[in-house]
Amino acid sequence: MGFYKDQKSASQGIPYHSEIPISLKDAVCEVALDYKKKKHVFKLKLTDGNEYLFQAKDDEEMNTWISTITAAVSGEKPEVTPSSHSTPAPAARAQTLPATVAATATAESSPGKREKDKEKRFSLFSKKK
C-alpha cells in the first residue's frame, strides 16, 4: 500500500515524503474504538508493530476502506464502486473567514474603535494625546 500527496503524484508514481510502500501481509485493519479525538477513525496494524490511523468522512466510507484493505490483505479482489472510491479525509486545515462575516464584523465596530485597532496594529508605542 502506497501513500501519495495527490492524484497527480500517484499517476507519476511519486510517493508522499519518499515513503516506500508498506506491506499488508498479515496486517489487521479495524475501527479504532480506543481513539476518541476524532470520529470515523480506523487503524491499520502491521506485523512489524507499526500502526497507521486513518480518518474517513463518515461511517460508510470508513467501512468501505476497512473492507477493501481487509480484502487486499487476504488476497481477494475488492469490489470498489466509483462512488465509494476516494481517499481518506485530510487532517483539518486552516480556513479563511468568509467575506460576509468579515464585512459584518467591521461594520459593527464604531469608527473610533477601528482607528484605535489600526493604531495598535501599526505602532509599537501608543501615541500620546
Automatic annotation (TrEMBL):
Transmembrane segments: none annotated. Residues 1-74 form the PH domain. One of its GO terms (molecular function) is phospholipid binding. Residues 94-107 have a biased composition (Low complexity). Residues 111-122 have a biased composition (Basic and acidic residues). It holds the Pfam family PH_9. This is PH domain-containing protein. It comes from the Eukaryota. Residues 75-129 are annotated as: Disordered.
